[in-house]
Amino acid sequence: MPDHELVNLARHELVRIGLAKHKEILDGCVVRMPKAYPTYDPDYEAAMPTIRAALAQFKNVYPVGRNGMHKYNNQDHAMMTAKLSVENLCDGAHHDIWEVNVDRVYHEEVEK
Questions:
Q1: Which residues, 6+ apart, have CB-to-CB distance to 72 below 8 Å?
Q2: Is residue 10 part of a domain?
Q3: Segments forming the whole domain that contains residue 16
Q4: Which residues are CB-neighbours of 107 under 8 A, at least 6 positions away?
Q5: Are 72 and 100 contained in the same domain?
Q6: Is residue 68 one of the residues assigned to a domain?
Q7: Is residue 82 part of a domain?
Q8: Are residues 17 and 67 located together in one domain of the fold?
Q9: Least packed by Cβ within 10 Å: which of 4, 7, 34, 85?
Q10: How many C-beta atoms lie closer than 10 Å to residue 12's C-beta?
Q11: What's residue 94's pLDDT?
């Protein structure tokens, strides 16, 4: 879709699910990600403490999702990091978003 159609779709969906009123949405933008998954190299884990420490200096910056956190999260976990970040920013919560999905357990059950 062209950018303006994606922005209109997002606006419609935000209104439809009750997160915003149409008049409250002033603008939007599209950021196209060339890769949906982070790229791993043999040394990426060694760099993560440096990256996390640099980001911790800012009170209003939260890396969320697979690319932002450079870790494999399923969609639910990626959305949870975003939800908790919003609560931190808007409600004064103090969630540690890095603790989402640290147990590496996939929480869906398969019924046979």
A1: 37, 38, 66
A2: yes
A3: 1-32
A4: 76
A5: yes
A6: yes
A7: yes
A8: no
A9: 34
A10: 12
A11: 93
99: left (phi over 0), alpha (psi -120 to 50) or beta: alpha
pLDDT at 105: 61
In the chain, how many domains are there? Answer: 2
Question: Digits of tens for pLDDT over the chain (112 positions)?
Answer: 999 999 999 999 999 999 899 999 999 999 887 766 666 778 888 888 888 899 889 988 888 887 788 877 788 888 899 999 999 999 999 999 989 987 756 555 556 6
Same-domain check for residues 99 and 54:
yes
- H/E stretch holding 83: helix 75-91
On whether both 5 and 39 belong to a single domain, the answer is no
DSSP secondary structure, 5-67, as one string: HHHHHHHHHHHHTTS--GGG---------S-SS----TTHHHHHHHHHHHHHT-TT----HHH
Q: What is the pLDDT of residue 11?
A: 95
Residues 22 and 56 in one domain: no
